């Protein structure tokens, strides 16, 4: 991300020719276009991608869309950053150059060639994965070569492992495939084939954490990418799929990708109501509560949405109610993370307190009264407010006397249901 220039201008003036004419920010990857003007690569690529075909500065037509790295200017910018380190300026890293289309085609041909030796194919896939990690531009370039079709054939080519006694080629193809979205037809083709789903489930228990996480990522992509409720149910109904996904969530916080992929996969599976009991039986409630504080914002929202989904079935409510930290954590989350997180946490509390007097007393003891009264007056979503109002009415008899005495002003805000 470009550094912010506003703080810098208080102590040091950024040279004009170091700024991108489009973003007006310090250039990190300066490139020169056919008109001779220099821009930061992300800015000019975005300019062209939105349909512009002229040079932003000169307004003359771009006859060539090749962007030539301006190494001299980049080194000058790096030297300037170093000389102004005392003012809080950090040296920009040397950018990695975008992959060449001809190289991408060559690597894809090597990786998909059944006649090529396994080590050559695996090496080609690893190089492609390295390019895919580097930038969105590289991923777009790779995707433009029908990469998903090629990789799906490699991932599920079980004959290769039988011939050579190794799944390494399949695993490398899977590691690259999860960088790209699949179309619905591709998702359906995987979901419909029980052998393919069974293979992915087996990989959830592979000794390598990377293989397990990539398998969970693929399961999530397929489950989320098909519109067929029947196919989603077929995926979530496979034996041991919840055990494998939940085991990924148990990994230490040192593996953030495992947490991110694990909760995405678990949420996608729990969207199928008929198989949510399997998630509960596999221990999802305890893991969700125990790891809730470790998730980043977006993942925390997804985790809370999963909690609310599991609270829609009796066995889920019972499992969450047994965990001593469930109610206090849900109360604490209200108004802390985001509007969505607040809505999901309130919905889960409503479900728990509707079925358990112990949860009601735990919620009151954790300070839910204050949280809910603040919520109904906030700018949160209307759905969150409705859930809060229902929960306030439900807990009315559980409020301490010293709390209810000062709460009459809020009574009018609680709509009847």
Automatic annotation (TrEMBL):
<dbReference type="InterPro" id="IPR003613">
    <property type="entry name" value="Ubox_domain"/>
</dbReference>
<keyword id="KW-0833">Ubl conjugation pathway</keyword>
<dbReference type="InterPro" id="IPR045210">
    <property type="entry name" value="RING-Ubox_PUB"/>
</dbReference>
<dbReference type="InterPro" id="IPR058678">
    <property type="entry name" value="ARM_PUB"/>
</dbReference>
<dbReference type="GO" id="GO:0061630">
    <property type="term" value="F:ubiquitin protein ligase activity"/>
</dbReference>
<dbReference type="GO" id="GO:0006952">
    <property type="term" value="P:defense response"/>
</dbReference>
<comment type="pathway">
    <text>Protein modification; protein ubiquitination.</text>
</comment>
<dbReference type="InterPro" id="IPR011989">
    <property type="entry name" value="ARM-like"/>
</dbReference>
<dbReference type="Pfam" id="PF25598">
    <property type="entry name" value="ARM_PUB"/>
</dbReference>
<dbReference type="Pfam" id="PF04564">
    <property type="entry name" value="U-box"/>
</dbReference>
<dbReference type="InterPro" id="IPR013083">
    <property type="entry name" value="Znf_RING/FYVE/PHD"/>
</dbReference>
<feature type="domain" description="U-box">
    <location>
        <begin position="13"/>
        <end position="87"/>
    </location>
</feature>
<protein>
    <recommendedName>
        <fullName>U-box domain-containing protein</fullName>
        <ecNumber>2.3.2.27</ecNumber>
    </recommendedName>
</protein>
<dbReference type="InterPro" id="IPR045185">
    <property type="entry name" value="PUB22/23/24-like"/>
</dbReference>
<comment type="function">
    <text>Functions as an E3 ubiquitin ligase.</text>
</comment>
<dbReference type="InterPro" id="IPR016024">
    <property type="entry name" value="ARM-type_fold"/>
</dbReference>
<dbReference type="GO" id="GO:0016567">
    <property type="term" value="P:protein ubiquitination"/>
</dbReference>
<keyword id="KW-0808">Transferase</keyword>
